[in-house]
Each structure stands twice: as structure tokens, then as C-alpha cells.
From TrEMBL:
Keywords: Methyltransferase, S-adenosyl-L-methionine, Transferase, tRNA processing. The gene is Mettl2_0. The keyword NAD does not apply. This is METL2 protein. Residues 68-123 are annotated as: Disordered. It comes from Upupa epops (Eurasian hoopoe).
Length: 388
């Protein structure tokens, strides 16, 4: 059946219910897949909620953002310091990265300050729901890995996945070699996304989760967690910028790759190489799910002079770096990596600190790119059906 592919089409075509909105406060062209349904129609009610979806910037706001970015880019970091940051490049500290993932994926992210412990516990409890919201509209299997708690989930109805799994099992054994559906999270941190996914996988035969991080300490935290089990998960230290560093599994092994708030931490000159390598890990028909900073996000506009490394690329006070993307840049990079667009949109939201009466324009890029299906050996113009 074509259930999986049809699921993508049906869910991608569903939009928010039509209603009359003021042009100033709502995008005139809604994204193919709704990211949220809290629409600001009355500016007097802006402080009633922490987050508003599908914001349309005015021309004045657009101009202000461009001016602020141009202003904080005038003074560049000294060349010797740039080289130092590259040599000592640090992937985002796991605590901060998990905050960003929750911030970027939660429909109603809380801005009020909380202590670190309670914040992490809250994120863990909401993790499954947040992943579902972030990537609603994927195939049934992908929805399963991100926590669709309202339907039965099957990871084993992909004939190509089964076939590939059988072929791999005939090769040298590797972690997850017996699985028929495999997922990789790049930049897993301490596992605040890993364990909600594992909650689903541990009850789903034939599935396996890989997760990696630049920081060995973060990986050790994942492995020491009570929910970690090598029967359905493999956590490992990995530098995605090192092309010579092998992964603990062969190419064309993965069905899904999660790349969330990771690519922006990498030097722009190395991003394409990272994506090219990740694309090789996907099976034909496999999906790469991406979310990261968008151009002119509040975080970009807040940088002071002297923090800019290069155009739209900055260094924070803790030495970590961050790039701010446009969706065209994202499309170009993924296209060069041999992946095709399933979804690529700008997620504009208004984040509100109700206590301080502060408004922040947030911009994220959210995308799904797929590895093309296998070509027919007899006719390269034809593709092999993945879902008969």
C-alpha cells in the first residue's frame, strides 16, 4: 500500500482553519504544515499568552532587523581569535542546547525563569509531545519516533527497510544490525530528546536509536540513564566535522536523522561537508529532519559589536558559535547533498515575557528533506517503488 507516502501528502496539505485575520498579525500565506494555532488577532491581548504563531513582520520590523544585523556585523572578531574559536570549537553545551530544543519545539514555551532542575524535568515530560509538534506531517513511522501517542505505531511496514536490514545482517555485525528501522539524533546532549523517543522504541520491535554528541561527558550521561539499554540504543562520541571518523554502522543504514540546533554551531565552510556525509547514512527514501535558527531571530539582533565572525555567524560569550539561516540557504545545502525537499519553511513566532512586558520576534527554519528512492537499473529515469 501507499499508506506512508499518502500520510505525508494528507498531513502536509492540512492547514489551520480559515478565519479573518488582520494582515499585520498573520502571514498571508500559511505554511504547508501548521506549526501552531495560536494566532494573535487583537494586539491588545498580546500579553495573554507566552507565544503567538505565524507572525507576519511589518516592513518597519524587517528594516529594523536588517539594520541591527548590519550594525552588529560591522566589527569582526580578530583573525587570530577566529582561528582560536575554530581550533577550540565547542558544540553547544548540553544544558543550553536542550533549552534551545524545547524553546524551538514547544508551542507554548515558557519564558519565565525557572531553576535548571525543574526546567529539565519539565522538558523531559513534554519531550514526546514537542517532537510530535515539530515534525507533524512526516510518514507514520517518523511520527512514531517523535511520539504520536494517539495511534498505533508500526515501524516494520517498510519492505525496503526490512530488505536493507536483512542485507546488513549478512555483513559484519554492528549495533542495531538486526533492526529494520533506525534513527540517529545528531548532537544528543544529555538525552532530553533521546529518552522520549526510546519510550516509544522500547515497545516497538525492530527499531533502534543511535545518538551522538561532540562532548564525551554528555554521552556518558545518556549511557548512565536508567532508561538507556544497548538492546535498542547506541550512544557514541562523534565529531560530525571529521569526515575521516567512521560511524558505528554502514552507509545507507538510517531511516531518520534528527539535526536540531546543531548545524548552526558549525563553521559555514564545513556545513556542506557535514550534510553530504549525513546524507550518505540515509537509506533511499530516508528522511532528515532539521530545525535551527532563522535569519534575524532575536538572538541574532542582540549580539553586540565585536561578536561577529563572518556574515550571519557569531560567537557567544561562552565560546560557542551560531549561524542564522534563510530557508533558501537550507534548500541549497540539502539539495547539494542529494536530498529533496518535503518541507522547508520559516517559523516566525512572537515570544512574550508577560512579567516584564517584553516582546521578542523569534525565527526558526524547520525542514524535512528526503533521500531519493533507488533508480531502476534498467531505466535510470524510473525509480523503484519503495511502498508497493
Amino acid at each position: 500500500s501507499l499508506n506512508k507516502m499518502n500520510c505525508i501528502t494528507r498531513l502536509s496539505a492540512s492547514c489551520l482553519k480559515k478565519s479573518k485575520m488582520q494582515q499585520r498579525y498573520q502571514c498571508s500565506r500559511r505554511p504547508a504544515v501548521p506549526l501552531g494555532s495560536r494566532i494573535l488577532t487583537d494586539p491588545l491581548k498580546v500579553f495573554e499568552h507566552n507565544m503567538w504563531d505565524h507572525m507576519q513582520w511589518s516592513q518597519e520590523e524587517e528594516e529594523y532587523a536588517k539594520e541591527k544585523a548590519a550594525e552588529n556585523s560591522l566589527v569582526k572578531v580578530q583573525r587570530e581569535d577566529q582561528d582560536k574559536y575554530e581550533r577550540e570549537a565547542k558544540i553547544l553545551p548540553e544544558k543550553r542546547r536542550e533549552e534551545l530544543k524545547a524553546e524551538g519545539s514547544s508551542e507554548h514555551a515558557k519564558i519565565s525563569s525557572t531553576n535548571s532542575s525543574s526546567h529539565k524535568n519539565s522538558m523531559f515530560e513534554k519531550g514526546t509531545k514537542n517532537w510530535k509538534k515539530m515534525y507533524e506531517g512526516c510518514s507514520t513511522s517518523v511520527q512514531g519516533c517523535i511520539g504520536n501517542e494517539n495511534q498505533a505505531i508500526s515501524f516494520n511496514d517498510n519492505p525496503q527497510s526490512k530488505h536493507s536490514g536483512e542485507e546488513l545482517c549478512s555483513l559484519e555485525s554492528f549495533p542495531g544490525s538486526d533492526a529494520t528501522y533506525r534513527i540517529l539524533e545528531v548532537g544528543c546532549g544529555a538525552g532530553n530528546s533521546v529518552f522520549p523517543i526510546l519510550k516509544v522504541l522500547c515497545n516497538t520491535p525492530g527499531t533502534f536509536l543511535y545518538c551522538c554528541d561532540f562532548a564525551s561527558g554528555a554521552v556518558e550521561l545518556v549511557k548512565s540513564h536508567s532508561s538507556y539499554n544497548s538492546a535498542w540504543c547506541c550512544a557514541f562520541v562523534h565529531d560530525v566535522c571529521d569526515d575521516a571518523l567512521p560511524y558505528p554502522f554502514p552507509d545507507e543504514t538510517l531511516d531518520v536523522i534528527l539535526l536540531v540546533f546543531v548545524l548552526s554551531t558549525i563553521h559555514p565552510d564545513r556545513m556542506q561537508g557535514v550534510l553530504n556525509r549525513l546524507a550518505k547514512l540515509l537509506k533511499p527514501g530516508g528522511m532528515l529532519l532539521f530545525r535551527d535558527y532563522g535569519r534575524y531571530d532575536t538572538a541574532q539582533l542582540r549580539f553586540k559589536k565585536g561578536c561577529c565572525l563572518s556574515e550571519n555567524f557569531y560567537v557567544r560569550g561562552d565560546g560557542t558559535r551560531v549561524y542564522f539561516f534563510t530557508k533558501d540557504e537550507v534548500w541549497n545545502m540539502f539539495n547539494l547533498a542529494g536530498l529533496t525537499e518535503v518541507q522547508n519553511l520559516v517559523d516566525r513566532r512572537l515570544q512574550v515575557n508577560r512579567k516584564k512586558k517584553v516582546k521578542m520576534q523569534r525565527v526558526w527554519i524547520q525542514s524535512k528533506f528526503q533521500k531519493p528512492l533507488l533508480q531502476s537499473p534498467n531505466n535510470p529515469a524510473e525509480t523503484t517503488e519503495m511502498y508497493p
